[in-house]
Design goal:
mainly alpha; 2 domains
């Protein structure tokens, strides 16, 4: 077994153990956190998001980002809105989710807290810029690179629209 698999298994276990505790604090049965995809369905229902968010996570590539977004929204229902809380949820769920799930100082705040929260103007711009960078990268990687542009009779060194501009 390679070190990559070991890290993946430890990360997955940490994520699910943390979600187990977070689910219990949110008033959802803990075992539901251990069932893939059903756990995100439970989060979508608890947060009262539109049901199509659950189904959008099955779109290749984009679905991974939607699942991450659902987890960030769930963290917000614990009253954690800061940039570093969101970064911890994305990059370190192995440690952050168990902290939220089992720390005595953390509690599930609910929908009312999320509805009353207002982002600052600077935070709105930062979030929009981050989204634009991620979206542009995905489009460039998965759309423009997959379309063959050689048949457009450009110079032979042009392999995509972007490299010819």
């Amino acid at each position: 077994m390679s070190i990559g698999w070991i890290i993946f298994i430890i990360g997955t276990l940490g994520w699910h153990i943390g979600m187990y505790g977070m689910f219990k604090k949110a008033g959802i049965e803990g075992w539901k956190a251990l069932v893939p995809f059903y756990n995100t369905w439970c989060m979508v229902e608890k947060m009262e998001l539109k049901k199509y968010w659950f189904f959008l996570q099955f779109i290749p590539v984009a679905g991974q980002f939607i699942t991450i977004w659902i987890c960030i929204k769930f963290v917000e229902h614990f009253g954690r809105f800061g940039f570093w809380h969101h970064a911890a949820a994305v990059f370190f769920p192995l440690f952050y989710f168990p902290y939220l799930g089992y720390s005595k100082s953390e509690r599930y705040a609910g929908i009312a807290v999320v509805k009353n929260y207002k982002k600052s103007g600077a935070r709105e711009w930062i979030d929009a810029a981050a989204f634009a960078i991620v979206a542009a990268t995905l489009i460039r990687t998965f759309v423009l690179k997959l379309i063959p542009f050689q048949h457009l009779r450009w110079k032979k060194r042009c392999w995509s629209m972007i490299s010819c501009l």
